[in-house]
Amino acid sequence: MDAAAGGGSAVTHDILPVFRGMAAARASATASRQVVVPPLNFDMVAPGLYRSGHPNERNFAFLRRLCLRTIVYLGTEDYRTNMAEFARKEGIRVFHYRVNMNKEPFTEMDEEQVASALAHVLDRRNYPVLVHCNKGKYRVGCLVGIVRRLQGWSHTSILEEYARFAGERIADEEFIEIFDLAQVNINPEHQPEWL
Which residues pair with 73 in a beta bridge? Predict the structure, then answer.
C-alpha cells in the first residue's frame, strides 16, 4: 500500500533512521558525561569554604569542579598518597594539621592547632578551600562550629548543624563552646566577606 494512500509503512521506514540517530546521539552524550560524586559528608559552609570526609578517586571529578586552591586536612594519619598526588597535579596547596579527636576523659583537640587551621580557613586568599578529616564529622564539625561562633550564630544553631553530620558528642560540643576565639588570628584585609 502506498504511504500517500494511508498505508503508513513508508513513513515508518523513513523515520526509523532518525530514531536510530537520536538514540545513538543520546548514548554518546551519556557515555561522554563524567559521573561526579561528592566526598562523604560534603557541604558548603560559606561561599568558597567547603567541608567533607576524606576524598577518594571517585571524588576527583567533583573536586575539580570546585577549582580548589587549598585543602586543610585535620587528621593524625599521614595524608593519603592518592590525595597528595591529586593535589600536586591540580596545583592545590595542602595544609595538614595533626589534630586528635575529642574523646573523654583524656584526649582533646589541640587548640593551637585548631587556631592555626582556622587562620588558613579564614583567609580568602586560600579560596576556594576544602576542610576535611576522615569522615567529615567530628574534627571538621568542631572547626565549622567555631567558624559559626565567629559568624555570631546562636549556640543552638551551631549544635543543630553539628548534630546533622555527627550526632551528639558532648566532648565536641563543649570544645566548640569553650574554645577561646581570641586565639584565632584573622587578618582583616584578607578575611572573607561573610565573616
Answer: 96, 132
